[in-house]
């Protein structure tokens, strides 16, 4: 008889338990479990991948070799049954595998070469590595975070903790979601659950956050974001202010005992108690990194190495996990954790596997190290550490440290201090200098070798533009400026870092006769308060003021008062725009005893002058600017002959004094390195470098690690932190005690002192006048 055609419905689709693995040698193995029931006698599995190649086997076990590194493959597995006509069942399961690369750990001595190779060609190799790591590992379920009653606790819908390693809060009977917080346990290099990576608390999750801190016995919280960035809320403020002192968050009572503001971070000492737990309260240190830009990553990886040092000095064996958070708890959080763990690996084994560790991070929390720039930054930080090492020292340990650094094994070998100086990068030609090398600007440069970089040169407007300008600050970004098209006048001046502000000081050459007008226009437009002049030589600096009133271009400069001492002179000027008629007060400090080829003759008097001039602008303003992320006007111009030799040493000393006072540490190497990045030939001699160490050490004599005569030295370097009243500030009258005295010698009176107020004498000690003082001025 003829066959009968029987038609049935296809069997229901069934998910295959598909697994995929790699042995690291360009080989992938794919396997799966078959369906429970077959629809016919013939059974076949098929594997298809990107190139169109196929493999067919009766069992679901495939092996694909000769795959390429740096490529993402899509693998498709299917099975079908074919038996009596009319029977058909078909199922396709698709999985996408970002094939993890086989990248060997990099030895410390090869890190720099590996970094240069991978960063070449716009970072192509870094990008290929980064993109090969899955953003999310789908084999780890995410169920709790997606439950309806937990969804409002997540800041971002696509950044959720895996179930297997999420931080579970202690439950409360009958309350759904009471145990949920968007936070994950993260392993360190060797220590399990060394960190908790968390999202920045929302207003509705602050109580949960503090409950987590209490239950996990955490004593350190690292916050790698501001509460607001670019008008966007990144994180709720979950701690009390110093004015509030104490705040309650659910059952947790948080008190703030101390708040220390530094340029790149803020440290707050907190104490927490539990309303229902009668055990002793706990101290928690909250350290907030404030120098991460709104977009991109920090330019200087040293900032994150410094943050790590601060955190590590706080941790102890009995602490719970270190809680790290940004906004989402993956990008900046992953970057900090990656740097910390890889430095631990470097110190333990002398090699690092950044790629492998970031893949491990993403198996513990999705999207850790969120963008390529963060992945590169981790490598950059490791290179920085290997190349330059740890150069920060506590001021209490400085004398003993410096004594060891100056020792030599033999006369022919450099001392450790000399070797440290030789490691400093020169940064020659590392940035464009197109504006300063233009034909029409060459005659405006005193030195052919000291020319400002385009990226941070000081811009100021032409006179016509200046006349139309309102009273707005000239705070346009000078970074990334295209100097070929910028409608600004040229002056040989650079923004350089102060202790508090990245571009807080202007370093410039001594004005030429033909650039005096440009100099005063820059001072006026940038609202400069203090000018520091470090030369007496007319060949290195034209005298840019006269007795009485003088107009330079559109700026009238009037010398109002002046006073001299053997070491330095203070002058007060009123500067007025001829058309706007508004007047501003500018103070000039001229140090007399510093030849361009030598070091300061009386460094103690130089320190005294620094103390005096710092009263003209408050460091409290800068600290508040750091907290609020508001721009602070440039207040200080420093110049010598070429704007580098004495200027570099002076600016380094100024920054080191502030750091010693604020943080109790100094890092001469990093301070000088930052100045060299900003302007050529800054601190170019070993003698100048050693002078910085010696001068700071002379202020902090120590024995057995303890500061001696602490009260005296606190007075010597004290920095005015409170904003003075305007009349006090304008007087420039100093209550600082002299650090050195000229026995029996009267203060020298310069010509312009005589012209303005010859009847007023300098402030005197019993040995004669030493420190110049100006009269009160309205």
TrEMBL record:
InterPro entries associated with the record: Prot-tyrosine_phosphatase-like, Protein-Tyr_Phosphatase, PTP_cat, Tyr_Pase_AS, Tyr_Pase_cat, Tyr_Pase_dom
EC number(s) recorded for this UniProt protein: 3.1.3.48
Compositional bias (Polar residues): 731-744, 764-778
Residues in Tyrosine-protein phosphatase domain copies: 126-385, 417-699
Similarity annotation: Belongs to the protein-tyrosine phosphatase family. Receptor class 1/6 subfamily.
Localization per record: Cell membrane
Biased composition (Basic and acidic residues): 462-471, 751-763
GO CC terms: plasma membrane
Region (Disordered): 462-486, 727-778
Cross-referenced SMART domains: PTPc (SM00194), PTPc_motif (SM00404)
UniProt membrane topology term: Single-pass type I membrane protein
Biased composition (Acidic residues): 472-485
Keyword list, A-Z: Cell membrane, Glycoprotein, Hydrolase, Membrane, Phosphoprotein, Protein phosphatase, Repeat, Signal, Transmembrane, Transmembrane helix
Keyword field contains Hydrolase: yes
GO molecular function, one term: protein tyrosine phosphatase activity
Residues annotated as transmembrane: 83-101
Limits of the Tyrosine specific protein phosphatases domain: 305-376, 604-690
Record protein name field: Receptor-type tyrosine-protein phosphatase C
Residue ranges that the Swiss-Prot or TrEMBL entry lists as coiled coil: none
Keyword rRNA-binding recorded: no
């Amino acid at each position: 008889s003829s066959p009968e055609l029987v038609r049935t419905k296809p069997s229901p689709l069934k998910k295959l338990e598909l697994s995929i693995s790699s042995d690291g040698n360009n080989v992938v193995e794919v396997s799966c479990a078959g369906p429970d029931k077959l629809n016919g006698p013939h059974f076949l599995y098929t594997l298809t991948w990107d190139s169109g190649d196929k493999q067919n086997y009766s069992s679901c076990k495939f092996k694909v070799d000769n795959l390429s590194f740096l490529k993402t493959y899509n693998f498709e597995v299917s099975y079908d049954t074919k038996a009596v006509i009319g029977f058909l069942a078909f199922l396709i399961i698709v999985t996408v595998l970002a094939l993890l690369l086989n990248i060997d750990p990099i030895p410390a001595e090869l890190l720099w070469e590996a970094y240069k190779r991978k960063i070449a060609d716009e970072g192509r190799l870094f990008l290929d590595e980064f993109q090969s790591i899955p953003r999310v590992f789908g084999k780890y379920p995410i169920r709790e975070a997606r439950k309806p009653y937990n969804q409002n606790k997540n800041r971002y819908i696509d950044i959720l903790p895996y179930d297997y390693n999420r931080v579970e809060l202690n439950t409360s009977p009958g309350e759904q979601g009471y145990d949920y917080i968007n936070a994950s346990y993260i392993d360190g290099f060797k220590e399990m659950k060394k960190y908790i990576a968390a999202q920045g608390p929302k207003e509705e999750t602050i109580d949960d956050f503090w409950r987590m801190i209490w239950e996990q016995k955490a004593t350190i919280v690292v916050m790698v974001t501001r509460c607001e960035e670019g008008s966007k809320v990144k994180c709720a403020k979950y701690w009390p202010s110093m004015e509030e002192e104490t705040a309650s968050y659910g059952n947790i009572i948080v008190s703030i005992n101390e708040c220390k503001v530094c340029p790149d971070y803020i440290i707050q000492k907190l104490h927490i108690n539990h309303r229902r737990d009668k055990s002793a309260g706990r101290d928690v240190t909250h350290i907030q990194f404030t120098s991460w830009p709104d977009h991109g990553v920090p330019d200087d990886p040293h900032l994150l190495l410094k943050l790590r040092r601060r955190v590590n000095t706080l941790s102890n064996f009995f602490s719970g996990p270190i809680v790290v958070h940004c906004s989402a708890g993956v990008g900046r959080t992953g970057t900090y954790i990656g740097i910390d763990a890889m430095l631990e690996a470097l110190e333990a084994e002398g090699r690092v596997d950044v790629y492998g560790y970031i893949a491990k991070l993403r198996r513990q929390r999705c999207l850790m190290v969120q963008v390529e720039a963060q992945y590169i930054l981790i490598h950059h930080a490791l290179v920085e550490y290997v190349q330059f090492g740890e150069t920060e020292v506590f001021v209490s340990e400085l004398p003993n440290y410096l004594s060891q650094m100056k020792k030599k094994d033999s006369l022919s070998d450099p001392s450790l201090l000399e070797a440290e100086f030789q490691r400093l990068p020169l940064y020659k030609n590392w940035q464009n200098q197109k504006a300063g090398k233009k034909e029409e600007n060459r005659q405006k440069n005193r030195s052919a070798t000291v020319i400002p970089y385009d990226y941070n040169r000081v811009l100021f407007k032409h006179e016509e533009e200046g006349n139309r300008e309102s009273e707005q600050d000239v705070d346009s970004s000078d970074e990334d400026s295209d100097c070929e098209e910028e409608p600004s006048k040229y002056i040989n001046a650079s923004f350089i870092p102060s202790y508090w502000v990245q571009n807080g000081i202007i370093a410039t050459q001594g004005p030429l006769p033909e650039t005096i007008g440009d100099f005063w226009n820059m001072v006026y437009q940038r609202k400069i308060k203090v000018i520091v002049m470090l030369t007496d030589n007319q060949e290195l600096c034209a005298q840019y003021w006269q007795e009485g009133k003088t107009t330079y271009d559109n700026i009238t400069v009037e010398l109002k008062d002046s006073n001299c001492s053997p070491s330095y002179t203070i002058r007060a000027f009123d500067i007025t725009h001829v058309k706007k008629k508004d007047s501003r007060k500018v103070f000039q400090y001229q140090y007399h005893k510093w030849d361009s080829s030598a070091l300061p003759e009386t460094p103690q008097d130089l320190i005294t002058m620094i103390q005096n001039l710092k009263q003209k602008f408050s460091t409290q303003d800068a600290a508040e600017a750091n907290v609020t992320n508001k721009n602070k006007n440039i207040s200080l111009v420093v110049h010598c002959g070429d704007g580098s030799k004495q200027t570099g040493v002076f600016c380094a000393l100024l920054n080191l004094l502030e750091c010693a006072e604020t943080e109790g540490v100094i890092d001469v190497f990093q301070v000088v390195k930052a100045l060299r990045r900003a302007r050529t030939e800054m601190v170019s001699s070993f003698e100048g470098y050693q002078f910085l160490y010696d001068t700071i050490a002379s202020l902090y004599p120590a024995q057995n690690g303890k500061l001696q005569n602490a009260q005296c030295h606190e007075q010597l370097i004290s920095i005015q932190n409170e904003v003075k009243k305007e009349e006090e500030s304008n007087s420039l009258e100093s209550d600082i005690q002299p650090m050195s005295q000229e026995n029996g010698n009267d203060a020298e009176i310069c010509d312009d002192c005589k012209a303005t107020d010859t009847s007023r004498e300098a402030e005197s000690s019993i040995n004669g006048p030493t420190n110049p003082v100006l009269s009160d001025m309205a």
